[in-house]
Amino acid sequence: MDESRADSQLIERSLAGDAGAFADLCERHRERIWRVVASVANGPDADDLVQDAVVRAFLSLKSYSRSAPFTAWLSKIALNAAHDYHRSAWKRRVLLSERQPEAESGCPSGEVERRETLRKVREAVSKLPEKMRTPIWLHYFDDFSIAEVAELERTSESTVRARIKAGMNRLYVVLQDYVETVQETLPRALETKQCKI
Amino acid sequence: MQDLNRDPSEQQIRRLEELLTAAAEFEPVRPAPIGLASRALAPRRGRPASRRAVLGICAGLTLAGAAAAAALIIQVRIAPQNLSGEVAVNRGAQSKVPTALIEEKERTIPKKPGDSGGYKITDAFDRRKVDLSPKRRRFRTVRPHKAPKPVIAKAEITQEVVHLFETGIIAPVLIATPDAESGATILQASLIEIPIEHSELVLQEGYDSSHIRPVRNEENP
Question: pTM to 2 decimals?
Fold first, then answer.
């Protein structure tokens, strides 16, 4: 409750135009933004993407309706920034070298593969159209309820469910290979928490 | 062959949900950096006052120079060429009017036969279909001037076929062969048959030329 009260105060100050308060607010939720951004980018691009998401959020702060959770709203903006990063000319034209620092961390190669699989699943969700990716991301990855997502999207719960279903159908086409082997991947994927770096 | 348009079954959707639930546990390798949000929203530092002053002076000087140049160009363009010319205008009245202006006034535009005298669209510019790239054809205003057609430079080639004939003349020669190992030249006495060109073959009347055969090689088939 204290955290939400502190958030509310910071949101009030941010809405009044206090950029410092908004920066503090984003710092409090930096882990959530980082989890979104790290799913699609790495290295300096991820840092840039975080800053882009923060600036976007600050500029569109007036569109935030206080009935929806602030973290969900922030995640949505970070998700949109990540989606735009995918579509950016830089990403399309420049062949980025994929660094794999996991290999240096001491984790077995199998763990690295599973981590990469999970990252690709999140990346596939971030590439979905906006109406589908936000409900799926918030519901499955950030544990928001359908009602909270509907509040954020300013629509009905049934619409959110329909969008999730449509998104799942699309995701299945992309992730078909992973879904077929989920029985082998899933038990070990859950073990990756033990190998946290 | 599997139909891609078919919706996945309930079991496949459940597996996909399991995969998504597992992906929710994804943890980034690098921890979230601290201070990125503060840096993103930090006010940008302005230029120092001294630098602003220098930039202002430079900009002012540039503007003044540009204005002076423009004024000079305008003055040169509107100045008449012959200011002191005295010519008769309006029933011989004498007045000091620039000759260039009078000539411009009195000049009549020659009328073409069949010209009705109406307005005619100038052909200074022309709208033409310009093919910039595939599927992006646009009508652009272009100058009607056509560049001269490129002329392909032609080189005169003279083809000459040289026929060599065996003459049956055997001559002793020394064949010089360079030795690759020692670098010296090895001379070897030999006999070769001397071929001559057709033009050089002058036969006397009554000469039996049955033994003269053309040389068959790749250069002179």
Answer: 0.50
